[in-house]
Amino acid sequence: MKQSRMYIPTLKQTPSDAEAISHQLMLRAGYIRQVAAGAYTFLPLAWSVIRKIEAKMRKEMENVDAVEMRMPAILPADLWKESGRYETYGDNLFKFKDRHDREFILGPTHEETFTSVVKENLNSYKKLPIVLYQMQAKYRDEDRPRNGLLRGREFYMKDAYSFTANKEQLDVIFNKMEVAYRNIFDAFGLNYRVIIGDAGAMGGTDSKEFSAIAGIGEDTIAYSDASDYSANLEMAASKIEKLPAEEHKQIEEVDTPNVHTIDALSQLLDVNSSRIMKAVAYMADEKPVLVMIRGDYQVNDIKLKNILGADFLNEATAEEVTDVFHSVPGFISPKGMDTTDITVIYDSSLEGLDNFVLGTNKADSHFINANFEDLGDEKPEFKDVRTVKEGEQSPDGKGTIKFTRGIEIGHIFKLGTKFSNALGANFLDENGKSQPIIMGSYGIGISRLLSAIIEQHNDENGIVWPVNLAPYQVHVVPIKYKDDVQKKLSDEIVDLLKNEGYDVLLDDRNERAGVKFADSDLIGMPIRITVGKKAADSIVELKLRKTGETIEVNKDELINSVKILLKNQE
After folding, report:
1. Does one domain contain both 527 and 497?
2. Distance of CA 42 to the CA centre of its chain
3. Is residue 58 located within the same domain as residue 167?
4. Range of the domain at 336
5. Are residues 274 and 194 in the same domain?
6. For residue range 232-290, what is the model confidence (pLDDT) as tens digits?
7. Domains contained in the chain, number
8. Alpha helices, H only, 424-554
């Protein structure tokens, strides 16, 4: 392909509103252009990379017997109302009505649609299991789209769905999908972690996230420095050092005027914050929940939401603390509170805690030397609802917890019967009994993957593509294409390479050599072949984009040299 016929609108300057390296480089190198906030055009170079990503995905999906199809992006709102997600997705849904006043959404994901389409035909255990997938644009009305393709309103995705008759079939497919996803990400040279993830609005039980390590990543990954343990911070666990046991003292009420923070309370009473039992009030699906946690920890809302099985969770307002919990903001406590209609949860950080500080449900006072028997429950059930801290012991007992940032590039879920129950997708089992289909969901963000790869494969001069993803493996750059000798040799080299099956870009533009070289480094092809002063002797320069190494070769040695050099970069 001649570069003069390609559309590669490179930029010399970095756009001021682009923060992520991948966003900056894709704009500068002419891979994408923004059409609206959170909506981007994939220009020819980007689309070439995406097609190669798709090819690898199709191969891996075929290996797990997944079948490709295509769903519409315009979905009836009634389907999402049946599943309950029309409300839980909230403002993230693009909602509209047609001319007949019927409600629709633009699909952010397709669990409901796939379930609805297959439920009439997958009516017997003999037809299960089956896995279907598609590659398609998705839509979410993000409040603040940012970082280019990493957080957009329209994004490109591969989503697959499994339909099985039992848990064993689901487990087999789930495990095969994990292997397939590892193969995909390994092939693209990504540094990533497979972590315990939160299913969120997807529902279900088990989920695993695939997170590419990157400083711009929105997710915090907690991992062990001595084992394979990794989890999204929202789901991470750890072992904490228990405080030394103390002989129980007599509970006592003390004045704590104008104290509204844990730090202020700790300072006033001269007690470590780890000896304070903090209360945090929530409303979960409009029902009151009181969470008790050590003063030196924070409640993890995602863990709490999952434990409660709640669709909506919000910290209680001051008015709700007064009117629903019948307490005082900042001094709330389960002691003396009528908890008949209130769910009280004790975090595991409190286990074994003695002589702690506790609110009194009265303004400007706290209890000191409180113990669980003072609460009427010497052995409460403890649950993990806290956010882990860096430096704590890994939950598997191996190493300590470290934090890093990551970009979620894939997610696999065991959905169970959430959607089949909601939409009436049943089958007859071996005994002729009607059972709900058991489902799984498996997604890869293709457009986000493009960004993640560039975040990890770049240098100060531009993008450095892995060989199997580069839009072109070889970039032929004649210094002066108008020179007959250079033009002839350049054209011969292009033909030789194309005959060997390589994708080749020929820079036939009438530009200065410095401009051509800068653009070549920016767009990031693995090998650049410079045709210059030695063209009359059929000698050219090969430069490896990844290392900057250069060698001179004769045209007769070119193909073997390219093969070896590309092979060494795989």
Report:
1. yes
2. 21
3. yes
4. 252-383
5. no
6. 998 999 998 888 999 999 999 999 998 989 999 999 999 999 999 999 999 999 999 99
7. 3
8. 446-456, 484-499, 513-523
